[in-house]
Design brief:
heterodimer; A: alpha/beta; Rossmann fold; four-stranded antiparallel beta sheet; 8 helices; B: alpha+beta; eleven-stranded mixed beta sheet; two-stranded antiparallel sheet; 14 helices; elongated
Chain lengths: ~220, ~475
């Protein structure tokens, strides 16, 4: 269960205070597939950064499986990011000089997974997302956009996180590949019972999720 | 894959850049190693020179100049007083003259004609290299070439202490055959070098002529291999014998007093100066050594400054490289942090990348150090000792033979001082100083790797700080 209560994030831009996320509250159950839709500059990315413990809120709380992550120390936040959160980015964000399988194993290394288990789990996940054996050894530069996003999804799932945060996961893909990736995320969310929150401006994708939220000027509209 | 492995792999991500950085860094580390080698070699040489100098005081006629034909002389009567000074345990007195080979054409040197009485049946073993067009020898009225039947002059040395020849000859010597002569007896016994014996077909017991008299070869000595021919052209007789043969009465061209202890060296030097007054230049071996090693100390300072400079340059190269890499991979650092990497893990990865580059550069640096260590050390020492050659005779070194042997530096002359006095004291010290060899052992390799490690740590420390400042949210900003 993800519980967000009165979450706010304000920046100072010169003399003006910008409220990127303004008193946002919502709840999402385990295994739910939710979307946050909003225009550019509406605060989607900031909200995702706060949920993923990449940034600290000005006020409010975020509870993931009963744990308030806003109260965690920097050290515990690193552990939280490694074990409880999976990220899928619009531009994939794979490490360019590591092979697909090494990219997946990397997140397991940070989570402290024993070395002997990493390869098996990475192969299993890459097979699940449909990446063939020969492509698993390729570096990101030699994979198509869709294949790179599949690797990114496998990396996000590697540590069996409670929550997967996806920022425009289909934004850089053609519509057909985007649909495939979306369906893959949906399927895996159900199968692994992982909560997935997708930030998107594509209403056709948002319409297929279990729950939809709209963000406008930092405020959430259900 | 561990952070170390990732760091190593990252070092080769941009091969052209890696090659450039490694080469530049390698040159810096190489320069640092060369300077370290020079610094160590020169330091060892300074200690060696000081340790070998001993407790001696050299005495020469006041204002003696081996290139002048108007020198003063000392006498055995003047030096007799020196023997009685407290703490002086022995006094080695020498007289030197020049012999010309009978039948050899003798050009006029410095406006002076050869002494027709000082002739010998011996031929010098010294080989001249005067036909290389380098204009090394300047002979009055003779243009730049020597007569075809010219044979180099031979030095004849009279000493009262034939057992202590090192400072007189300019090279360490050992008796190969025959029996060492008695320095106090006026006999026609002589000692010659094995080179001289080979050249003239002589052995112990053979005879030759000098000053119109027959001299017998009592002993043949050998000279240690140190790269010079100093002493090969020398005939050694007793001091009274040379004084008689050359007709120079009780003249002495130089003397060396030995003191019982280094503690008494200064007082004994002062006492000798007081006794001989303005007739003599008196210098203790320690003063001489200090003067002689001064150029080495300059080299040592230069090499130390260059060493520190090269290490700082290397650290700056690593620092700038790592700053550039960190700035370039800011987003990648953000990704690593976003998926759970700690600051330490990311820093460790980048430090291992810096270390990989530095170790590769260290290998190049070691090669440069091993190949360039000795030549650079020798060049520094040679330039330094040449540019600071003292004007006093006691350290001018080597006498005629060594000047012949080395091909001369500038205008080598054969001018013969009045009374036939040629001071050779100090030649051995100068030769010792110039004959420098850097030992490149495991310690140097360890220093090289240690320096590389230090450079990598210092150079990547600031970059690590930059890494710690990269927030994981950077990955979102890049979206």
């Amino acid at each position: 269960m993800l519980k967000v209560k009165n979450l706010s994030k304000a920046f100072k831009s010169g003399d003006i205070v910008v409220h990127a996320v303004d008193d946002v509250s919502f709840e999402v159950g385990d295994g739910a597939f939710a979307s946050i839709v909003g225009a550019s500059g509406s605060g989607k990315t900031t909200l995702l950064s706060l949920l993923g413990a990449l940034d600290k809120p000005t006020s409010g709380t975020i509870e993931v499986a009963g744990q308030d992550i806003t109260a965690l120390s920097d050290h515990d936040l690193i552990k939280y990011r490694a074990r409880s959160i999976g990220f899928v980015f619009q531009s994939y964000n794979l490490i360019p000089n590591l092979s697909a399988i090494d990219n997946v194993m990397l997140s397991m290394e940070f989570a402290g997974t024993p070395k002997s288990d990493r390869k098996t789990r990475a192969e299993e996940l890459l097979n699940k997302v449909g990446l063939t054996d020969d492509k698993q050894l390729r570096k990101p530069g030699r994979l198509s956009g869709g294949e790179q996003q599949r690797v990114a999804i496998a990396r996000a799932l590697a540590n069996k996180p409670k929550l997967i945060l996806a920022d425009e996961p289909t934004g850089n893909l053609d519509s057909e590949t985007g649909k495939l990736i979306f369906d893959l995320l949906h399927y895996l969310a159900k199968k692994e019972n992982t909560t997935i929150i997708v930030v998107t401006h594509d209403l056709s994708i948002a319409g297929k999720t279990d729950r939809q939220f709209k963000l406008f000027d930092g405020k959430l509209h259900k | 894959m561990s952070a170390v492995n990732r760091g190593i792999r990252n070092a080769f991500r941009n091969q052209v850049r890696t090659l450039s950085i490694v080469l530049i860094l390698g040159l810096s580390i190489g320069l640092a190693l060369v300077m370290l080698i020079a610094h160590q070699a020169v330091g060892q040489k300074i200690n060696q020179v000081k340790a070998n100098v001993g407790n001696t005081i050299s005495i020469s006629p006041a204002g003696f100049n081996p290139l002048s034909s108007a020198n003063n002389a000392l006498t055995t009567d003047q030096l007799a007083k020196v023997k009685n000074i407290n703490h002086i345990t022995s006094l080695t007195e020498t007289l030197t003259d020049r012999l010309t080979t009978t039948g050899s054409a003798q050009p006029s040197f410095g406006g002076e004609n050869a002494n027709s009485n000082a002739q010998t049946s011996l031929t010098s073993p010294i080989k001249l290299n005067a036909s290389d067009g380098g204009g090394r020898f300047f002979v009055s009225g003779g243009g730049s070439s020597l007569p075809t039947n010219f044979s180099p002059p031979i030095t004849i040395l009279g000493t009262n202490s034939p057992t202590q020849l090192n400072s007189s000859i300019g090279n360490p010597v050992t008796i190969i055959s025959g029996k060492i002569i008695d320095g106090s007896k006026d006999t026609n016994d002589a000692m010659i070098s094995n080179a001289m014996a080979d050249k003239n077909g002589l052995k112990a017991g053979s005879t030759f002529t000098a000053y119109g008299q027959t001299l017998e070869v009592a002993a043949i000595y050998g000279i240690s291999e140190n790269g010079t021919q100093a002493g090969n052209d020398t005939v050694i007789v007793s001091l009274p014998a040379l004084q008689r043969l050359s007709g120079q009465g009780n003249v002495v061209s130089s003397a060396t007093a030995t003191v019982d202890s280094a503690d008494n060296l200064a007082s004994a030097t002062t006492a000798i100066k007081n006794d001989l007054g303005s007739n003599a230049d008196v210098q203790s071996a320690q003063d001489e050594a200090n003067n002689t090693v001064q150029p080495l100390k300059n080299v040592q300072s230069i090499s130390l400054i260059s060493l520190i400079g090269a290490l700082i340059a290397a650290a700056i190269i690593v620092f700038l490289t790592m700053v550039m890499i960190v700035r370039e991979r800011r987003r990648e650092i953000g990704i690593l942090k976003a998926i759970g990497a700690s600051n330490m893990k990311v820093m460790f990865q980048f430090m291992s990348e810096a270390l990989t580059l530095t170790i590769l550069a260290a290998v190049i640096g070691l090669i440069i150090g091993v190949v360039g260590g000795n030549p650079v050390t020798n060049t520094l020492v040679t330039n330094s000792t040449s540019s600071s050659s003292p004007s006093t005779s006691t350290t001018s070194g080597g006498g005629l033979a060594s000047r012949f042997a080395s091909g001369g530096s500038g205008a080598a002359t054969f001018s013969r001082p009045t009374g036939g006095l040629i001071n050779r004291t100090g030649g051995s010290v100068r030769n010792t100083v110039r004959n420098i060899h850097a030992n490149i052992g495991w310690s140097i390799l360890a220093y090289g790797l240690g320096a590389a490690l230090l450079v990598a740590i210092i150079g990547s420390a600031a970059a690590s700080w930059l890494i710690s400042k990269v927030r994981p949210a950077e990955v979102m900003r890049a979206e």
